[in-house]
Amino acid sequence: MKIRAAILEEMGRPAPYAVSKPLSICEVDLAPPGPGEVLVKIAVAGLCHSDLSVIDGSRPRPTPMALGHEAAAVVEELGEGVDDLKKGDHVVLVFVPSCGHCEPCATGRPALCEPAAVANTNGTLLSGARRLSRNGVPLNHHLGVSCFAEYATVSRRSVVKIDPDLPLDNAALFGCAVLTGVGAVVNTARVTAGSTVAIVGLGGVGLAALLGAIAAGAERIVAVDLSPEKLGLAGQLGATDQFAAGDADVVDKIRAATRGGVDFALEIAGSVKALELAYRITRRGGTTVTAGLPPPNAVLPVPAVSLVAEERTLKGSYIGTSVPLRDLPRYLGLFRRGRLPIDRLLSNRLRLDDLNEGFDRLQRGEAVRQIVMFD
Prior knowledge:
Number of domains: 2
CATH architecture of the largest domain: Alpha-Beta Complex
Shape: globular
Largest sheet: 7 strands, mixed
Number of strands: 18
Structural class: alpha/beta
Low-confidence stretches: none
């Protein structure tokens, strides 16, 4: 079938993207679903810093690529062997499919699925196939999703069914921002009630983590960012303290305010400098979690003795150490009960043709979570 999609022709074109136009909105061919696959109609897709990292080249991926990895959609057609969904079902797309058979999947860590990592790196679906093409030339898939498009063919293992009465504009954010941010708090850090938590980096994922820390019962939540506007929003959402990341004395100020540092510090900016800050504001015996994605060649200098002498923990968190089939229903339940007000993170609603301008806003730090509406 013919669809309109946003194609990244090459990485590294300079901002402003409204001028350089790294994303071409054009007509491409989408093949029907193969065995174990599903054709979905995209309803809403979110703009994430992980997309921007591919656009600017800091996270290399094969091009040309149909971009986008956070979305809510409606099932249109089922491939052979898919018998647990039906046309019209509402789903959230997940950017790390789970094969269910490799060692990480078998031990309850589907975020580390080995075949999924290979497929996502190579720009294919979990099966190894490419279902997108242009003028007979195959196009690469972004993280098995490629949701900046009217329709997508994806692995059945890249979708989680949701209740049809959930607003799709909010549901879209659960596929990345919520799984990653809230998951980093509850699954990776294991934040406890009454604890002190710092969130370094207040984009969509960071603010989702802040909401997750509130839901987990943290007593004091320190928000850290370069943007005064995002610090203000963090305060409105429930952060007890806000600190400017650009302040030369920010570490000393946070340590003084929290009597030696926080129990849990989460870095979600994708910056080594931000991770260093998060590590330095973590108290003795505390835990530092990084859920941002810096460039592959970035290196973190850590005083090795602090890991032992201070019994410090430094952990990575990919897609929130999530088990999507378990966690998405839980987080959606919190949203229904008003305990995870993700709708307050929505900052701009776009059309597909507005994507380049949307990534300009994201690159300048002017947006929290922008979404593309397809209906």
